[in-house]
Amino acid sequence: MNKDIQSLVDKGDMLPLMEEFYTIQGEGFHKGTAAYFVRIGGCDVGCHWCDVKESWNANLHPPTDISKIVENAKKYSKTIVITGGEPLTWNMTPLTTKLKAEGLQIHIETSGAYKLTGIWDWICLSPKKMKLPTKEVYEKAHELKVIVYNKDDFRFAEEQSAKVNKDCILYLQPEWSKRDKVIPEIVDYVMANPQWKVSLQTHKYLNIP
């Protein structure tokens, strides 16, 4: 990457775009809602069960002018979901400023491991044990979504729920490859601890992206 392009990426005026697509939000509070997803490349959090590991290496994804991303996004939906990878690897303020100027609702799905940049209508915080969220993301998250892979994740979920704001909605979501094992455990846990809700990857059941 030449220095001029690298400078634009560093500023957030270009971003390593992995993919963008119009679909139904499958997870969390907004499940069932039509939304335009923008997946940004680059992540070093390193979840072994990640289902988009191809997003990790930002160098594999072309630096794309954010004006082009906005032009594409506004054609499809009023709800835009920025995901990754880990989008907060990059400065999200330029992109979200342009999206807001178009009157769009902007959501982010993040591990919260990096500084919170950008203007967000909804923050879905999905913390990971390898790199914990920043204090600011805990304070501003609208929903906490903890992925359950094994029994220790229930302990981790409670630890994380103690750090978010009082209005944050709490979700437990089965890791897809372990769903047959952990769904009964999650159901029992939520029934015993009703401050939590169950989140499922409904888009996978619907066989859509």
From TrEMBL:
Its EC number is 4.3.99.3. One of its GO terms (biological process) is tRNA queuosine(34) biosynthetic process. Substrate binds at residues 24-26, 39, 83, 209. Binds 1 [4Fe-4S] cluster. The cluster is coordinated with 3 cysteines and an exchangeable S-adenosyl-L-methionine. Binds 1 S-adenosyl-L-methionine per subunit. Its cofactor is [4Fe-4S] cluster; S-adenosyl-L-methionine; Mg(2+). One of its GO terms (molecular function) is S-adenosyl-L-methionine binding. It holds the Pfam family Radical_SAM. Keywords: 4Fe-4S, Iron, Iron-sulfur, Lyase, Magnesium, Metal-binding, Queuosine biosynthesis, S-adenosyl-L-methionine. It comes from the Bacteria. Pathway: Purine metabolism; 7-cyano-7-deazaguanine biosynthesis. S-adenosyl-L-methionine binds at residues 49-51, 85, 126-128. It catalyses: 6-carboxy-5,6,7,8-tetrahydropterin + H(+) = 7-carboxy-7-carbaguanine + NH4(+). [4Fe-4S] cluster binds at residues 43, 47, 50. Residues 30-209 form the Radical SAM core domain. Homodimer. Catalyzes the complex heterocyclic radical-mediated conversion of 6-carboxy-5,6,7,8-tetrahydropterin (CPH4) to 7-carboxy-7-deazaguanine (CDG), a step common to the biosynthetic pathways of all 7-deazapurine-containing compounds. PANTHER family: 7-CARBOXY-7-DEAZAGUANINE SYNTHASE (PTHR42836:SF1). Belongs to the radical SAM superfamily. 7-carboxy-7-deazaguanine synthase family. This is 7-carboxy-7-deazaguanine synthase. It comes from Mariniflexile fucanivorans. The lineage of its organism: Bacteria, Pseudomonadati, Bacteroidota, Flavobacteriia, Flavobacteriales.
